Amino acid sequence: MNKNVKDVEISGIRKFFNKVSKVDGAISLTLGQPDFPVPDPLKEAIIKALNEDKTQYTPNSGIYPLRNKISEYLATMNINYDAEEVCITVGGSEGLFSVLMAVLNKGDKVLIPNPSYPAYEGIANILGATVVNYSLKGDFSIDIEDLEKKLKDDVKAIVLSFPSNPTGAVLSKEDMQDLHNLLKKSSVTIITDEIYSSVIFNEEYYSIAQYEDVLDRVILVSGFSKMFSMTGLRVGYVCAKEKYMKEFLKVHQYNVSSAPSIVQWGLYEGFDEGLKSVSVMKNEFKIRRDYVYNRLQNMGLLCTLPQGAFYIFPSIKKFGLSSEEFCTKLLEEVKVACVPGSAFGSLGEGHIRISYCYHMDTLEKSLNILEEWLKQYNKQMI
Ligand code: PMP
């Protein structure tokens, strides 16, 4: 077997999920998957595409009308890529894999945030690249000074990941400006994963891809799994200027040929109507975010208010357990499942990830159990 592959561990999220599936009746707050159905206009358009037998391979880059639609949609966020600079992928996952594969040689250094979505590091390790972690501050914003030091270190690429899984942090205007000033001075390739960009709770969205003076070095990875609540339908996209797109397409072509045809057609036809459901989902996530945040604060779990995505990352440091021990105890003793922070990198230790893309009833029930369990735990400690 390939040595790099052998050395890579399966994601800590999956590992814990496997543990949860063995506990009968456990309430899970572990999944990063909205609990809403696919918006009706999209469902209907996908079924229509199937009935019209639009089931052949599409062009490798995806169908042009959808690429154009994505280009127009991104323009509403001040991100300017032409349709030719958009490639439809099999979820954000394939996008990330094919991008990293196209960019990184064995041994190349790649800057990856810690904590962050485990796939970045996993893919980099499979490719034999060298991972250099950059740290986040207490509020999970980028530690610009740390990054500045690490950027000097002969780095090929940097991965940005906002809104963040697992922290829910987004880039503020000031952080974005600092980051832009720093990256502008470097020649590093910037890979920005913006799969949660449709779930932000502030009005303004900030992205490195909004800066024309670095855009020729930016590769944007995004997708529809979270936006349209269609994690199983597997469509995402990658945007890049020709220099990168040309090479990326070779990997993408040999990897998957093209993304699923009927979903592409469905997305194209149902896009505009489907966007209405995106704001409904976002408003609901905001209500849940506020509810979960207030409950956690009231039970003495310190956390930063998430500004995007649908995760919250409270600190459990004061309990003197590792995040794995904490989550395992919580699961085994009262059957509530959260993901240990260590699954997202060494600096995720001391935290747990709670996903709040669950129904309010589930959130209320599980948080009641957590609160009671913490009371008992605190009593035992006195
Ligand atoms: N990036 C991040 C930050 C994610 O959290 C995920 C999925 N959880 C992905 C990319 C991949 O998403 P997809 O389902 O589109 O492959």
TrEMBL record:
Pfam families in UniProt: Aminotran_1_2 (PF00155)
Keyword Transferase: yes
Domain Aminotransferase class I/classII large: 27-364
Signal peptide as annotated in the record: none
Record bears the keyword 4Fe-4S: no
Keywords: Aminotransferase, Pyridoxal phosphate, Transferase
GO MF entries: transaminase activity
Cofactor(s) needed: pyridoxal 5'-phosphate
PROSITE patterns: AA_TRANSFER_CLASS_1
Domain of life: Bacteria
Name the UniProt record assigns to this protein: Aminotransferase class I/II-fold pyridoxal phosphate-dependent enzyme
Organism whose genome encodes this protein: Clostridium simiarum
